[in-house]
Write a structure and sequence with these properties.
There is one protein chain. β4 and β5 form a beta hairpin. Helices cover 0% and strands 42% of the residues. With 59 residues, the chain is mainly beta.
Length: 59
């Protein structure tokens, strides 16, 4: 799913869970996926990993 160039979004609430520490020297990566569109409300799923395990997640 992609938004048109004329579209924009503003976040009003973020829920984050921190599950594990990332070892020194490792990189953390998070990706956002749109999981629900309801009118002007956009809901995202955001998992984060350090390449070994999931270190957090958010919506």
């Amino acid at each position: 799913m992609c938004f048109s160039r004329a579209s924009s979004a503003v976040g009003a609430a973020v829920d984050l869970q921190h599950c594990a520490a990332t070892p020194v020297g490792y990189h953390a990566c998070a990706t956002a996926e749109v999981i629900n569109l309801e009118g002007q409300r956009v809901e995202f799923k955001v998992p984060a990993s350090d390449g070994i395990e999931e270190i957090g997640s958010g919506t």
